[in-house]
């Protein structure tokens, strides 16, 4: 009877066989993935570590950690590191903030689905395409670049363009010189009772009034006035004498003319349709500087050089925010949907306003989601490459470069594979802590 209760060898072999089959089945499914993981991840990492210890070229000598030392002494690489720090500190925070705002707003609009589609749509565009789009957006010419078109339109509301912007003194006749304010003033003083003819040149045709008539000689002057004419010293078809009002040369009506004495404007007048003006109320025998006011030549609202050395990194970060705000919004919206509505309604019943509900109830309960979004975006910006390469012009790539781009430039443009490999390993070491943090959070949530 006792022997009947003892497991037989056949039963043990059977259980062992089942365990082996399970192991075999697991191995069949895992081996392809493990093989690809080894080929595409493990081997490149191992190879890069080894290659980073050698110099440039295929037959380079072993130099140890010299490449790693050079990373912290090379000026361009230090700029790349500084830019990466700016990216990590700024871009994920702004994207997460925009995502949170959009997620909250989406719940309060009647067209929630359409709103989310519009915000998320940039995620469907590749980095390369986004780079091309924003390279055009940041063009200096307002007729091409959307950013400067907006800037000039808004600033143009209080910075009007002068009627004769771009004009310059003509050669010959009364000599004019530019002042620091942008006006054109006579180089020599003019006594009261005189007449002056002030010719302008290099004026774009669209700046000349359509109804402009031929300029007329200035009228005679009394002893307490200065008279004169402002005209376009240019004869269509050629000919004419510089500094002289020739037939067919057009008047420039509406030009503001000033008489200046001891740095103070003592008389002002606007030219009539024939280009004539009269500065009255002057002291007989006194001398004055005749000046065409700066308001005539004001260039108006100007845009910014978005892709210059100063603004290129913020401009590229703005493109990243435009692209990834939808990603943050979707994840945060999922977190918002999980918040019990009873909690929110109870707070409102107790007298909390919407800002208090958002700050004291929504944000604390969304904090785990916000942390995951923030860390995920940090990993992404550490590896940012495409946007910087496409948007930043070649002349400012040294100022806009980041570690991933600099790694590519050193390895494939300069040809120093050892230095490029060292930068790749350094970038990997920067990414690993953020990845481990995310994995830890996922495990805590699952547990």
What structural class should be given to the helix and strand makeup? alpha+beta
Strand proportion, as a percent range, falls in 5-15%
Tell me, what's the shape? Answer: elongated
Q: What is the straight-line distance between the termini?
A: 47 Å
Number of H- or I-type helical stretches: 14
| Secondary structure: number of strands | 10
Largest beta-sheet characterization: 6 strands, antiparallel
Helix content: 40-55%
Average pLDDT over all residues = 87
Give start-end ranges of low-pLDDT stretches: none
From N to C, what is the helix and strand string?
HHHHHHHEEEEEEEEEEHHHHHHH
Q: Rounded to an integer, what's the Rg over CA atoms?
A: 37 Å
What features would you describe in this structure?
By secondary structure, the protein is α+β, with helices and mostly antiparallel strands. Helices cover 52% and strands 11% of the residues. The chain has 14 helices and ten strands. Strands 2, 3, 4, 7, 8 and 10 form a six-stranded antiparallel beta sheet that branches. Strands 1-5-6-9 form a four-stranded mixed beta sheet, with no helix packed on it. Strand 2 and strand 3 form a beta hairpin. Helix 4 runs parallel beside helix 8 and helix 13 runs antiparallel to helix 14. The model has no long low-confidence stretch (mean pLDDT 87).
